[in-house]
C-alpha cells in the first residue's frame, strides 16, 4: 500500500506580527472592530492618538468587547501615557457596558471615549458625526 503526500493546512494568521511600534494620528480599527483581526498585539504595535471603532451589529458581536479590552491591555504596555481618543461610529450596548465597566482603567491609561453630539444631514439621511482636528 502506498501513501500519498500528506496535505497540511496552515491557518493564515491575520494578526499583527510582533515588531517595533508604528505611530499614527488616526486609525480605523479594521473589520468593524472584530476580534478575528484585532488583538492585543495590534494595539501594542499600532499606536495612535485616535482610534475609530465601527460596528453596530450585536448579532455579529460588533464592536467586539475583546477588541475594546485588547486596547486597554495593549496600551498598558506602551512606554508613554499619551492621550488616546476612542471614536465610536455608533452607540451600542457593548460600547456602553465596556465604557462603564472599565472607566477607571481608561482614566489610568489616559483613554477618552468621544461621544457624538453632532448630527450631519445629507439629503434624506442623517447620522451622528464627530469633528476631529489633527
Automatic annotation (TrEMBL):
GO biological process: axonogenesis; dendrite development; microtubule cytoskeleton organization; regulation of microtubule depolymerization
Cellular compartments per GO CC: cytosol; dendrite; microtubule; microtubule associated complex; neuronal cell body; synapse
Family annotation (InterPro entries): MAP1 (IPR026074)
Residue ranges crossing the lipid bilayer per the database entry: none
Any one GO MF annotation of this record: actin binding
PANTHER family with a match to the protein in the record: MICROTUBULE-ASSOCIATED PROTEIN, MICROTUBULE-ASSOCIATED PROTEIN 1B
Protein name (database record): MAP1B protein
